[in-house]
Specification:
Number of helices: 20
Distance between the termini: 83 Å
Strand order of the largest sheet: 1-2
Strand content: under 5%
Radius of gyration: 23 Å
Helix content: over 70%
Largest sheet: 2 strands, antiparallel
Number of strands: 2
């Protein structure tokens, strides 16, 4: 019996001529909003509206897969279809900030908001995504340049952080915000690593040193974090557009010119292997295992869980302890989450973790200019320094942008806007390690100046 190859029909139905009406229906079925077929989208929308109408919206996985898929991919599609700004990260911005505004304006039904928030915070949805993306992208990298890339990225990251701190503080001071306030309450929060790992530890430390309310301090620290992340998303999208016009400045997700094969499917060593469903599933469980190893390290020794997971994955890759088949399976998991989960996740982040009030609180002209100057300097310095360490300027600048993002959620939004999700391991270094160093140095400095 002749075998069926890719692209051949798998059903006798395709061998029979279809009537025009049926072909028209198939065309409608094949039209997708994101990844969701149009009929599925319409029916799900009606079903969710029905649940809202009767006031019984569960908080389980199934209803949230439906709600987040509809909301995330609808916002993403709108952003992708807007002229010009669609090439500057509009899809990621819309998927994150439109739902935030819908919550603020009470347009999103309260029952849906409650369901999304409970599911997002109780299911560790974000960390499942980050684990799958990190493990898949690391296992898919070229082992020969992985270690060099991790070491070299600290040079533009450190240079950018120092330059951003100086320029941001000078600009804020010149605009009348005061040197002390500008540095500790605007510049430092931007580069502190987000909310959970940055603003909250900062507010606790500031409260102990300044003998003020931690809640009041946190309210002052959140707006720069939010608006700094928005600036980074916009600028990352602009860099993606620049990369299309000047391709010699970007590796399209590779940091160094010597990186020739950053995915295992293109490697001579692994090209003969095709992962089956069991291997792909096993790779997914492996990613969860590595996340739990990081969580255990955080529980026992207070080491940052995502960073621990990242370095374990790097050691496994460098030691060649992962088989080529499992590497390919992990890369398929990476592709699945990048394509099918990114926009639903951004929508969930917008509803559950991005208060619109905090974002708009940072919109006074002096604050806006100071935040923009800080983020632009951070990214611009990375862009310039990349030349001296033989790295791609655009990709390095995007990694530096993640240092001014909203933690792990910001990394996802920034890299989605830049269309470079494979940079997530380096983004995590910029966010987690860079943020931890920023928080530590800020608290030491504040103690010294008191």
């Amino acid at each position: 019996m002749a075998s069926i190859t890719e692209g051949e029909a798998v059903s006798s139905d395709f061998e029979m001529p279809a009537p025009p009406l049926l072909r028209a229906w198939w065309t409608f079925v094949d039209f997708k909003i994101g990844i969701v077929p149009a009929p599925t989208f319409v029916i799900l929308l009606a079903l969710i509206a029905g649940f809202v109408a009767i006031g019984k919206v569960p908080s389980d996985m199934l209803i949230n897969i439906a709600v987040l898929s509809l909301g995330g991919f609808a916002c993403g599609e709108i952003g992708k279809r807007l002229p010009f700004i669609n090439q500057m990260g509009a899809a990621a911005i819309f998927a994150t900030f439109v739902p935030s505004y819908l919550v603020y304006a009470h347009i999103l039904p309260k029952t849906l908001q409650t369901s999304i928030t409970e599911f997002t915070k109780s299911s560790n949805f974000l960390y499942l995504f980050i684990a799958s993306i990190i493990v898949g992208s690391i296992f898919g990298m070229d082992r020969r340049v992985l270690l060099g890339g991790f070491l070299k990225i600290f040079v533009p990251l450190a240079a950018g952080s120092i330059a951003a701190a100086l320029v941001g503080t000078l600009v804020g001071t010149a605009l009348g915000l005061g040197t002390h306030h500008t540095f500790f309450f605007i510049v430092v929060p931007i580069m502190a690593g987000g909310v959970g790992e940055g603003a909250i530890p900062l507010s606790v430390g500031y409260a102990q040193l300044l003998h003020l309310s931690q809640g009041e301090l946190l309210a002052q620290l959140l707006p720069p974090v939010m608006f700094g992340s928005l600036n980074a998303i916009l600028l990352a999208g602009c860099l993606n557009l620049l990369g299309r016009r000047m391709p010699h400045l970007t590796g399209e997700g590779r940091l160094s010119p010597e990186e020739h094969d950053d995915v295992p499917f293109e490697s001579e060593e692994t090209s003969k292997f095709i992962p089956n469903v069991a291997t792909i599933a096993g790779a997914g469980v492996t990613a969860v295992m590595l996340y739990l190893a990081g969580l255990m390290a955080q529980t026992l020794w207070n080491w940052p869980g995502p960073v621990t997971m990242l370095f374990i994955a790097v050691l496994l890759k460098l030691g060649r302890t992962v088989s080529p088949q499992l590497e390919q399976g992990a890369f398929v998991v990476f592709q699945f989450f990048r394509v099918s989960v990114t926009y639903p996740l951004l929508f969930a982040i917008g509803v559950a973790m991005t208060p619109w009030e905090e974002l708009t609180a940072a919109l006074s002209p002096p604050n806006v200019v100071t935040i923009m100057a800080t983020v632009i300097t951070l990214m611009g310095t990375g862009f310039l320094v990349a030349r001296f360490v033989k790295m791609y300027p655009i990709d390095v600048a995007i990694v530096n942008a993640c240092h001014s993002g909203q933690g792990g959620t910001g990394d996802v939004a920034i890299l989605t806007a830049a269309n470079r999700m494979q940079l997530i391991p380096f983004a995590q270094i910029a966010t987690r390690i860079g943020g931890a160093i920023t928080v530590a140095l800020a608290l030491i400095s504040l103690r010294h100046f008191l």
